[in-house]
Amino acid sequence: MNKITVVGAGNVGATTAQRLAEKELAREIVLVDIVDGVPQGKGLDQWESAPIEGFDSRITGSNGYGAAEGSELFIVTAGIARKPGMSREDLLRTNVDIVKSVGLEIKKCSPKAIVIVVSNPLDTMCYVMKETLGASRERVLGMAGVLDTARYRSFLAQALDVSVEDIQAMVLGGHGDTMVPLVSYTTVAGIPITQLMDADEIEKHVQRARSGGAEIVAFLKTGSAYYAPSAAAVQMAEAIVKDKKRILPCSAWLEGEYGMKGVFLGVPCKLGARGLEQIIEIDMNPAERAALTKSADAVRETQDMVRL
Ligand code: APR
Predict the structure, then answer these.
(1) Which listed residue, of 45, 65, 103, 164, carries a Cα 20 to 30 Å from 136's Cα?
(2) Active site residue 205
């Protein structure tokens, strides 16, 4: 890929840019932020790590979108981060305005770009981005499921003392307290998790994954998670850049799948060069299906509060 732009040069954005460069996912990586000097300084610092890390992706930072022109992919992390005691929904008003303004800039400078949204509240910010761009659903995806799933996988790997690589799982639904970890699709090297762990212990890890974001906020006090979130966004970017057709849980605009439409929700998505290439509908048990519907209702409630 020629150019990827990361909007927001804060914790998530800057870490994302560094990870993109270290994987050489684009010839050029642009960091955009409104704070004077921050994207320029971080971009230069990162570029100066190139001779040591051995990557040739050029990173530059800017306050405007001139350098971002013609980007094929954007990763949007602009916004304010959650503070302790603040729910994702509290962020709503401020971040709607921010994401809308970013969307208008993307529309002007790179009208065909694919956009991965990271800003919270995630599913609603995806809606704001899609509406602002006037884009088809192929081009707007939200990063949440990969992160929520990674948290769940990391807890299971630790508890079972096995490689994280051998834990397959999928967390669907909205990125919030109503997320839906699918226990029936959780396996360890293909072995159903229920054969290796009792139901109470599985539930403990499910609950921890559900509050995984808040757990980090409680530690950090002045910010929210960024190492795992940036890794998750870059995994989605890599699937698109390399046209890998990976199946990852992402927030996508539903048009009838799972019996729902007009809402962004975490579902299994095939990601490739065109962005969202397919939403895969899987069977769920009645409890999981009910939890997914409940999660969609919660997202819809926030989405409906947004006036564009
Ligand atoms: N355009 C570009 N950048 C902006 C804009 C804007 N309109 N408004 C704010 N920003 C920038 C801020 O200047 C800041 O540098 O977004 C950056 C956000 O960085 P942090 O405060 O460090 O937040 P971070 O932890 O990176 O989280 C960013 O991702 O995970 C979500 O909930 C999180 O919504 C938050 C986002």
Answers:
(1) 65
(2) no
